[in-house]
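FAQ: What does the model actually see?

It sees only this:
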Amino acid sequence: MKKRLALIDMGTNTFHLLITEVDEKGKRHDLVKTKLPVRLGQGGISNGAIAPEAYERATKTLKAFRAQIDEYTVETVRAMATSMVRNATNGEEFIKDVFKQTDIQVEVISGAREAELIYYGVRAADALDEKTAMIMDIGGGSVEFIICNQQEIFWKQSFEIGAQRLMDQFFQQDPIPAESITAEKAYLQETLQPLSAAVAEYKPTALVGASGTFDTLCDINALRKGDPSRVQATPPASTLTLEDFYHIHQQLLSKNHDDRLAIPGMLEMRVDMIVLASIAVDFVLQQYQLQEIRVSAYALKEGVLQQVLEGERL
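And it is asked to produce this:
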């Protein structure tokens, strides 16, 4: 008996829709995979409310998602909202509005739950092994860190330091000046003290990057090396050498908006935020002396899918 499911991840920057068909053996056949730059946090994240334009973009996008869900006669729909909605003063009103206009019941998940679901998604991508690793998922509103291996989570926490928040705080000039880079790293050092304590205890050796920033870094790297196949069909798990990461990182720091946009593999929706995100990746690699980077194309929505398939009621 095949089952059709729709998973919606309403991120602060990007909305994702995954419609998939799963057979009785648990084998997945994806019917729709969409990501759209809704920018729910734009113009409002630092004020703690969803701005009117972003509100309108979001409801319009979810109406379009609902049309696709109906077209594929999906039985189970799961929609998750994260950092922007859970912190917005008008978040509750937004959720009610979405239900009224689309009949989509949105679950606003806590940072801890988000981190846990990301772990299940990354584990499903086979991006973990028996060694202790640190998952880093950079969203627009929050960043989740999970210290784990393929068997278990040792520690997890969500920090409200996503790329849109960092951009509002540290991106006043383009290209970004050295003092802004220093300021962002000092801020991260202060904010991530709980992570530093957990790293001292559990000693992860690898960084596993999940979500958009890391996908884009891998796409840029693949095209730089003349391998377009990765961009055409993203594998669940990839690797990125430290040398390759730092080559791209230096480019991102030295170029302005238009020059970054011209980099093959760059997405317009990520062209500015990726600068702040890349600085955060550099900080984590250096601060915690991590020796390798693995990348998972699976994250929150795939984690939810795993839980649904395993029969857990979210």
